[in-house]
Design brief:
- The complex is a heterodimer of chains A (215) and B (221).
- Chain A has one domain: MetI-like (MetI-like fold, Orthogonal Bundle).
- Helices cover 81% and strands 0% of the residues of chain A.
- Chain A is built from nine helices and no strands.
- The termini of chain A are far apart.
- Chain B is flat and about 75 Å long.
- Chain B is 80% helix and 0% strand.
- Chain B has one domain: MetI-like (MetI-like fold, Orthogonal Bundle).
- By secondary structure, chain B is mainly α.
- Classes of the chains: A mainly alpha (215), B mainly alpha (221).
- Chains A and B meet through α4, α7, α8 and α9 of A and α3, α4, α8 and α9 of B.
Chain lengths: 215, 221
């Protein structure tokens, strides 16, 4: 047990990397995912088909395949990335597909009468989007979005497999040195649990807060 | 781009991928079956019992749902044998892990399904003189299954995809077969070009067949 506790600073360095990966992935995935989600809701047919294919394709394969493909596969066709970049790119691509679906669902939940009312008072498309659709859709978007943030924090453990020294790989390294597997795993489990539990708790709070909005 | 595609190595070792896919499906099937039993039992326990037992079920669910599957896989495969409790093969260990993992997700699914069974149905059961266990078996559980079917299919698909994580403890499933070919022939792009459709097609076949089941048993409003 002492080994696990004395290696805590080292695990914290790993945790920092986990949080960095999570933060970057969430920022990229949210920006691109929301844009593509608006595209799949209001865009021209070709864009809708492209985004639909992208989203279904990415959601249909295991994230591990995606991570290994980006890190080991892409260099074969001349795209070299460092482990950290590859991890962020792979997880972002994966998360984008989920944010697209969140956005699409949230926009769809807004009654079409709202859009028509906006048209009737002469708002332009982007004004209708910003002043009418987004504020209403945001309430539907936030709870699943926070869930996918928690999922990212959890799923980022997989980037240890391509050599990013995140919390997971830091744990493996400590175990490699001290041969005390169980205490280190339990400490890691607690750290992951605290992060994710806080996130899913806030997601549930928000969901309850916005529960007055009926289908 | 001066990359020359050469699929011959992949076809030469295709049996690794094929049997890998079969093993992936077996892992998913066995773990889901055990997970369903865990999920159903704990959901019933949760719904029927008092605060203290609810707390234990809820902590199992929250602990598993909020920790990475990779960590659980390592914990059960390396951690538990290291303190000398059990010894087991990688495959057994992964099945145990995925069952515990899927169980936690399925408790939530079944619990919300049980809560959504209309009161009127249960009252009707009471009115015709059914005992509590009869109501449970003939009314609550069948209705619950029809309500949760869509949520179940989503869980099944994501559990099938999660079997790829078994490759990290050298369970020879599809992802492991792909890695083996990678490291032995370096035909990396080709391997992914083959296993991606394998995952996609299998996932869609599962999804479409579950959609048929959903349609058959859907509750018409």
């Amino acid at each position: 047990m002492e080994a696990a506790l004395s290696s805590l600073p080292y695990l914290m360095d790993g945790l920092l990397v986990t949080l960095q990966v999570t933060l970057l992935v969430v920022v990229f995935a949210t920006i691109i995912g929301v844009i593509l989600g608006v595209g799949i809701s209001y865009g021209p047919l070709w864009l809708r088909i492209l985004v639909r294919i992208f989203s279904d394709f990415i959601r249909g394969i295991p994230v591990l395949v995606l991570i290994f493909f980006v890190y080991y596969g892409l260099p074969a066709i001349g795209i070299n990335m460092e482990t950290f970049t590859a991890a962020v790119v792979a997880l972002s691509i994966f998360k984008i597909s989920h944010v697209i679906e969140n956005t699409r669902g949230a926009i769809q939940s807004v009654h079409h009468g709202q859009m028509e009312a906006g048209k009737a008072i002469g708002l332009k498309f982007h004004e209708r989007l910003i002043y009418i659709i987004f504020p209403i859709a945001l309430r539907r978007f936030l709870p699943p979005w926070i869930n996918s943030v928690a999922d990212t924090a959890k799923g980022s453990a997989l980037v240890s497999l391509i050599g990013v020294v995140d919390l997971m790989l830091a744990m493996q390294k400590v175990i490699g040195r001290t041969y005390e597997a169980m205490p280190v795993y339990i400490v890691g489990l607690i750290i992951y649990f605290i992060i994710n539990y806080c996130l899913s708790l806030s997601s549930r709070k928000l969901e309850a807060k916005y529960a007055f909005i009926k289908e | 781009m001066d990359y020359h595609f050469n699929f011959s190595y992949i076809w030469r070792h295709f049996d690794r991928l094929f049997y890998g896919l079969v093993l992936s499906l077996e892992l998913a099937l066995v773990s889901i079956a055990i997970g369903m039993i865990i999920g159903l039992l704990l959901a019933l326990v949760y719904v029927e019992s008092g605060k203290s037992i609810r707390f234990f079920v809820a902590s199992y669910v929250e602990l598993i749902r909020n920790s990475p599957l990779l960590l659980l896989v390592y914990l059960i495969f390396y951690g538990i044998p290291s303190i000398g409790w059990f010894q087991y093969s990688a495959t057994t260990s992964f099945i145990v892990t995925l069952s515990i993992y899927s169980g936690a997700y399925l408790v939530e699914v079944f619990r919300s399904g049980l809560a959504a069974v209309p009161e009127g149905l249960i009252d009707a059961g009471k009115a015709i003189g059914m005992k509590p266990w009869q109501r449970l078996i003939s009314i609550r559980i069948p209705t619950m299954f029809r309500i949760v079917l869509p949520a179940l299919s989503n869980t099944y698909i994501s559990l099938f995809k999660d079997t790829s994580i078994a490759s990290v403890i050298a369970v020879p499933e599809l992802m492991y077969g792909a890695q083996w070919i990678n490291f032995n022939t370096f035909r990396i792009i080709e391997v992914y070009a083959v296993i991606t459709p394998m995952y996609l097609v299998t996932g869609y076949v599962i999804l479409l067949s579950l959609r048929q089941v959903e349609k058959k048993f859907a509750i018409n409003k």
